[in-house]
Amino acid sequence: MKNPAPDVRVDRTFRKLKLALFSIINENNQEVISVSLLCKKSGISRSTFYDYFHSVQELLDYFTDQCIRDLQGGIKAFLCPENRNYIDYYCWLLNYIENNKNEFKCLYAFEKQTNFISKTDVFFLGNSDQVCSRSRFCQYGANAIIKAWLASDCKEPAREVAVFLAETVRCLT
To answer: For FRET with 161, which of 2, 52, 133, 142 sits at 20 to 30 Å CA-CA?
Structure first.
């Protein structure tokens, strides 16, 4: 991907691509998305798309990595060695997910292509060896719960789900 200079037009183009991608996934739940369909839905030209990305996969990777960078901030703030406030962490995480539902539906829908869960797991493990000795189970189990909560359109209150997740993690550490 070409590294764009900070520019309002570039931000607008990326925002259009992101919205189009989420819209296609929500409308059709397609496993394969073409550049043509993405460009048509976003209203940008193919040449503009190819100015920044080589493929839809690269676009998915870009948005996945962007999301993971946002998640890293929460992990660092709530799960540092001197502060293991799992309830606050999961409340923050679930509120972040609820505010970005379409993005997370996309990430979970394309997990096989983006490796979203594995990428978050790698960061979680790298954050601190002592945060959670059974991180892989916690991460995949938490993601399964979060994915189901997201599929229900976040019906359960975020705090209740956060308490459940935090208690599960505490039992495993």
So the answer is: 133
3 domain residue, yes or no:
no
pLDDT at residue 143, rounded to an integer: 81
Residue 37 lies in a domain: no
List C-alpha distances in Å: 158 to 73, 80, 173: 19, 22, 22
Please report whether residue 18 resides in a domain: no
For residue 68, pLDDT over 80 is answered with: yes
Q: Which domain holds residue 119?
A: 81-172
Distance CA 6, CA 38 (A): 23
pLDDT at 120 over 90: no
Look at residue 88 and tell me if it is in a domain.
Answer: yes
pTM of the model: 0.73
Assess whether pLDDT exceeds 70 at residue 134. Answer: no
> What's the structural domain count of the chain?
1
Give the SS3 label for residue 133: coil
Residues 13-40 as b/e (b if ≥16 CB within 10 A, e otherwise) read bbebbbebbbebbeeeeeeebeeebbbe
Residue 123 near residue 75, CB atoms below 8 Å: yes
